[in-house]
Amino acid sequence: MAIEEQQVSYPCPTCNESFPISLFQLLEGGVIVCPRCRTNNAAAEIEAIERSLQNLGKSILNLKKCLNASGRMNQG
Ligand SMILES: [Zn+2]
Q1: Per the structure, how many domains does the chain have?
Q2: 22: in domain
Q3: Count of beta carbons in the 10 Å neighbourhood of residue 40
Q4: pTM over 0.85
Q5: How many whole angstroms from 22 Cα to the centroid of ligand 1?
Q6: How far is the CA of 11 from the centre of ligand 1 (A)?
Q7: Does residue 76 fall inside a structural domain?
């Protein structure tokens, strides 16, 4: 059996129902629809992206502070 055909338990982020999906679905990044509440994983992925953007935003702010500080030193 190919590794992609292995079934894993995927917990629904909405209703916490665990249901089997194939590793292939995970690896391909396909939309996974919960058989219980019909929620798909697209919303969860968007939340994850937003969270990483927020983390990135914080580091960009820190970077800007550093650049401003060194910029002032260069100009001064
Ligand atoms: Zn669900």
Answers
A1: 1
A2: yes
A3: 15
A4: no
A5: 17
A6: 8
A7: no
Span from the CA of 41 to the centroid of ligand 1 (angstroms)? 9
Tell me how far the alpha carbon of residue 37 lies from the centroid of ligand 1, in angstroms: 4
Please report whether residue 28 resides in a domain. yes
Tell me, in angstroms, the distance from the centre of ligand 1 to residue 31's CA: 13
Query: Residue 21's beta-bridge partner residues?
Result: 8
In this predicted model, what pLDDT tens digit does every residue of 17-75 receive, in sequence order? 888 888 887 777 777 888 999 888 766 666 776 777 777 777 767 777 877 887 666 55
Domain residues for the domain of 23 are 3-71
52: left (phi over 0), alpha (psi -120 to 50) or beta: alpha
What's the 60 CA to ligand 1 centre distance in angstroms? 35
- Asked whether residue 46 is assigned to any structural domain, the reply reads yes
Strand, coil or helix: 41: coil
